[in-house]
Amino acid sequence: MPLHSEPVTINFGPQHPSTHGVFRMRVTFDGEMVIDAEPVFGYLHRGSEKLAEERTYTQVITLTDRLDYTASMTNNQAYVLACEKLLSVSPPLRGMYLRVIAAELGRIASHLIGIGFFLNELGAFHTPLMYCFRERERILDLFEMMCGARITFTYMRVGGVFQDAPEEFWPALKSFLREMPGYVNELDQMLSKNEILLARTRGVGTISPDKAINASISGPTLRSTGVAWDWRKQDSYDIYDQLEFDIPVGANGDNYDRYWVRLQEMRQSLRIITQCTEQIPNGPVRLDLPFVLKPPEGEAYGRVESPKGELGFYLISDGTIAPYRCKIRSPSLINLTILRDLVIGGTLADMIATFGSIDVNMGEVDR
Amino acid sequence: MMTRPLDTTKLAELVETNFPGSVTEWKPNAIFIRPETLLEICHFLKNTPELQLNYLNSISAIDYIEHFELVYHLTSITHNHSILLKTMIYGRENPSVPSVMAVWQGADYQEREVWDLMGIAPTGHPNLKRIFLWEGFQGHPLRKDYEDTIILPRQWPRGG
């Protein structure tokens, strides 16, 4: 007997327990199947690019913190790299090692949030999330020792980092490095072969490598499709070219592979931090640059491999104390390009899980 | 292993031989082309076997008072090289540029952002709407001559 039904359009967000910030989608359903989805952005738009034109180069670092607030260290790093390319300077070695340690700790913190909230969206309501947050608290304590803040650090400066890590940082970091692999193994053991996780995420939200490259996807989402592209290896900055680490690459490009790539990246980050603590030399952490910087006229594009993808700052300087144009290449916004194609034809539950597996941060999308 | 920037002189010659009259100038780090020829040159850059610039890193728009400039950062994942492509658009009333969405799907939201904040319309874009600001917003905030009545007057002098 045919059922009389018609498509219904509902609003998904902007306030919703699983929207990673304020993200809105107008979705049209036919029963439980999605037939159209239109993302709507702008709920967290603060005009960072325009504000950056009115602030000195060092003051803009505070604006960059607020982009991807789950891992602010890499935001600072990308901006400061662009400034250093404009000035053609390079920070001292100890400063670069501290930057890499901070960035990799930030990567672990961001992936813990990514995995925790992904499982939240699958329905494992807050239990894996709280396991991940328990470890994230230790990382935030380490950051508090380094720079005094837990979320918006402003730790990096043009020419190095703000201050050296205090005495109590190194034993705390060593004990973290000793215990964290055990916790990552615990997460792996509980989640990676879990029947419900496998049944709900294998084969869902599959992206092919060509489509991913065409849609300018970057970060773990790109690597889950099989493309081994990581800006830490391709365009090495700081001292990544002297460290040994692998790039985990997925096979299918589905939701499970994105979760798996993030888990493996946490292990590689721990490896990087261990090498840094062994190799770090003594010395200054910051170049002696003037307080108010006036780079020569020119342009520079500084990019890092942030936990979400390729975060780039395109800075144009006209010789005055503030940037003429500061364009932020946001990985989360561009990774959402394929969301519509992935979601159409699937069910409501898969739509939420796919959106969670791409792991966006609305502070970065809207800027 | 490092992504290397391509030599712009050879690139400019290659583009000029295939599309005469399209290259306006070239500098050591970028080539400048005419906006009308943008779409066919982007198809060429993506499909030529020795270039294969299949990854669009970012599209930026800059307001240089007398003209607008659009900057395309392109990378080739297969060959591991990158270029910078720029075009200059003269005229502040209704500037427009061909949309490159047919070449790289990743240009979707970036072109909408360029339209929303800078006012340069990408012609041929299937879904041209404001992306960050609400429908009905007047003006394009990132322009240098944008007068906004909402925020406080500027407190920081630009210094010399």
Topology:
The complex is a heterodimer of chains A (367) and B (160).
Chain A: E1 8-12, E2 24-30, E3 33-40, H1 48-52, H2 60-65, H3 72-87, H4 93-122, H5 127-147, E4 156-157, E5 160-161, H6 169-191, H7 195-201, H8 209-214, H9 220-223, H10 231-234, H11 255-279, E6 298-306, E7 309-317, E8 325-329, H12 331-335, H13 339-343, H14 348-358, H15 362-366
Helix pairs in contact in A: 3-4, 4-5, 4-11, 4-14, 5-6, 6-11, 11-14
Chain B: E1 4-5, H1 8-18, E2 23-26, E3 31-33, H2 38-47, E4 55-64, E5 67-76, E6 81-90, E7 96-98, H3 107-118, E8 121-123
Describe the protein in words.
- The complex is a heterodimer of chains A (367) and B (160).
- Chain A is of the alpha+beta class and 367 residues long.
- In chain A, 47% of the residues lie in helices and 13% in strands.
- Chain A has one domain: Cytochrome-c3 Hydrogenase, chain B (Orthogonal Bundle).
- In chain A, the strands form three sheets. In chain A, strands 1-2-3 form a three-stranded antiparallel beta sheet, with no helix packed on it. Chain A has a three-stranded antiparallel beta sheet with strand order 6-7-8.
- Chain A is globular.
- Chain B has a domain at 4-106: 2-Layer Sandwich (Beta Polymerase, domain 2), CATH 3.30.460.
- Helices cover 21% and strands 28% of the residues of chain B.
- Chain B is built from three helices and eight strands; from the N terminus they run βαββαββββαβ.
- Chain B has helices at residues 8-18, 38-47, 107-118, and strands at 4-5, 23-26, 31-33, 55-64, 67-76, 81-90, 96-98, 121-123.
Question: What is this entry, summarized?
Answer:
The complex is a heterodimer of chains A (367) and B (160). With 367 residues, chain A is of the alpha+beta class.
Helix/strand class of chain A: alpha+beta
Protein chain pair with the most extensive contact, residues per chain: A-B, 40 and 37 residues
Rg over C-alpha atoms of chain A, rounded to the nearest angstrom: 21 Å
What's the number of extended β-strand segments of chain B? Answer: 8
CATH superfamily grouping of chain A? Cytochrome-c3 Hydrogenase, chain B
Kindly give the count of domains of chain A: 1
CATH architecture label name of the domain at 4-106 in chain B: 2-Layer Sandwich
CATH class bucket of chain A: Mainly Alpha
Strand content range of chain B? 25-35%
Mean of residue pLDDT values of chain A = 89
With strands numbered from the N-terminus, the spatial order across the biggest sheet of chain A is: 1-2-3
